[in-house]
Amino acid sequence: MKYKNKKFIVLIILFIYKMYILLVHELDFLYYTTDSLSVRNLGETMSGKQYSDRFANLMKTEVSNRFGTNESKIVTETDTVDGRNITNFHLGLKVLMKYSTKTEDVYSLPGYLLQLENKNIDFAVIAVENPRALHSTESTTKDNCPLLSIPDIIMKTRNWSRLVVGEFPPVKYEPHEEDEIQCFIKARTMQLEYANYLGLSAMIVSFTQESLAPLAHVLNHFFLGTSLLKFDFLLLSRNISSEKEKTSYIWCRLPLTWNRIDETANDAWHLYHQLRTACGNDARLEVALEIGADLCDNMQILDRWTGESIGCLIIPSEVFQTSPGGDLPTVSEFHRQLLSILFARTSRAILEFDSEQLDTIPVNEYSFCVRSLYKNQRVLPMEKNSSVMRSYRDYLQLPLQPLFEDLSAATYEVFETDSVKYMQYEMAIKEAISDKISGDDVPFFNVIVCGAGRGPLVTAVLKALEHFAIPAFQLIAVEKNINAVSTLDHLNKTKWNRKVHIVHSDVRKFKPPAKADIIVSEMLGSFGDNELSPECLYEAMKFLKPDGVCIPQFYQSYLSPVHAPKLHYNAAQYRKQVEYNDALECGYVVYPATAFVIDYPKPLFPFTHKVGCNAKPKQKNFYKVLKFRSEIDCELSGILPSNHTPNMRSWFSMFFPLVTPVMVKAGAEIEIHFWRNTGHGKVWYEWWLAKPTVLPVQNPNGRSWSFAFILVVMHSGGDGFHFALSVKLTHSMSYLKNAVPQVKAGVPVVQNATAEFPVDRIAVTFLTSHGDQFKAYGKIGDTLLDMVFNENIPLDGFGICEGTCSCSTCHVILKREQYDYLPSPREDELDMLDLAYGLTDTSRLACQIVLTEQLDGMEVQDVLSNYEAWNDGTAPTGRGSASISKGIVEYSGRASRK
Q: Is Secreted given among the entry's keywords (predicted)?
């Protein structure tokens, strides 16, 4: 019996020992006493049940995702206010606790952090200094160099990163004393390196106008990964390649506005602007905005901060008031409104108290108040009813080019989730139908959807027709993406009851069997016309009835000057990732959460698609000057369109960055020149800042960024489709052989845009410089380029061209009598011929030569077939030269026309 009792006691001791080891080594809190189950210097004693609950919570926290995001930001458990979850909000605490180098005092930090977790606080703000200063004879002789430190071994690195934000105590010095300046630089460098060594996620730095220059010097070296304490400027232990995985942020502590007694000519924003500019607008530099009890009433000054990257908000205790109905802390209505705006831009806040005794502060009550304020933030318009939009904040994307590229299923899926847009389309379609119905007379409706995608617009049309109980209609869905066509076919069988006729064609080449009552398209881009909707819809307007309606009928682009350093920095980073263009000469689609609009938006280029305006306009190029005025000092980073329909998420704004940010004074005029140009098979924008500072014209001739005006023409034959590229063909290359029947609910039709042309053939002989001859027969009505492809005639230059009228690789030479039979070349063909090699006065592009009876027996000389250099991607030298990249021929030099 005694033996069993001893064995039982031993097991109990082993269990207690294992629990002790687990607590010490896995939870990082040291010096536990087993008699009272309390933590040394914790300041409170917990019962066994309380300790068990705390242990369970700590274990839950330990295994949860609490060690930071990809950006190493601080991450905590989900918080709850009034029974509702508030995710991704992190609240810190700063009190005036003084640490010494005595071991028994230093180790109070883990216990202090445990107390904070018990008080609903996620992290602590701790003054962190470098222990190397303790061994420096020079530094100990000066009062302004660091002397104190907290050893790193008291906690594991993951808890330093998760639970602590470092703060560097102010270092005073005389800016005109060289020794003082060097000591300041050394102190700040040591502090930054030690904080980085600890793995802190963020560090708070205070500075003044006098210390700005040396601080910028230190921060630039820190961001580059070099040390000012090493003579050879070797890289620190952290390497550049790992920066994306672990990034240390610098939070610059500044007041929202100066206190009135301290007010100077330059406010806090000017100070931050100077430091940010000196550090190259580095994204790791953010502002820790202190919300004072006394605020100015100039909302422009407050709004300007929304254009900056806010790392956190610092809320001192004097901001709070006692609630009228009790002892709970609250804030004034003005502070409440201000915080509701700022909390939409940052999810971190720090409570700051002057007291040294944590037990005297009702931290839980203040925490509840701040979390309630965060819960009631003024949600940004784009984020209402969408939990995903936050992840798109300030993320730059190059605009889609749906005419040049087929969209992916993922892209279609994103568009289709925007129910607001399709509700607006459905309402517009209903209104158009309603206008055409008079009394009991319900006409037959012919509706064409141009660019049907995966069918959301088709569904909207069917709903509108069903709403009015239209008995007879014809609905044609035109889509060039063969992958999306298969989806349309599936929906037609399973959802639309075979009521839709599906046509696989480019809208610009489609020839309908009858003119339409209503044309519907969603080719609009973020900037209105940037997806080339004018070029497409002007062609589609040809098959609209005289009383027909096009949806959309009218759209216009708008511009505003914007203060957005973060967007400009992100755009500048693309410069390092591209080889052939300048990233600051591109427009970017972006959800601009961190941007301050300097002045109201103004209209730019209008486009109309109405009856009477359905002819292609003579004006191909557009130009306009816009003038704005700034009411406050700010930094002009670029130009940005205005917002759009609430809750609509398909179209983000488009950001046009300036080549360099420009400081704008209050009252200064901003003058922006903007162009939309068309030529050489592409459309592009150019922009130029003329005031208040003159900058170079950006993106001239579309050198860095343009939209390819490429026409996809589907050729039937064999087992599938052959894709060729062409632009603005003089004569139509494709026809619908049979008219689409009018149905109520008929058989689904998937038609190819090109069908057989029921006419005789003519003979054509091709001559090459090798002395070879190829005789073949082509269909009257086809182009010479069609014939080469259909008859598989081995001409090297044509194989590279594949129908791209934006190049001259299908250049051929005709005999004079045959040349005279052809219509005169159009302007776009002449532009390409000017670039052609071996140009003569009877030169034409094969894609522009339509076969007719008069050309029977014609002889064609192929210019480029004898040059083997085309096979390795380089054109022969001569009047012009070319390089081939990804199937696109780019020319340098020009040819002279005889």
A: no
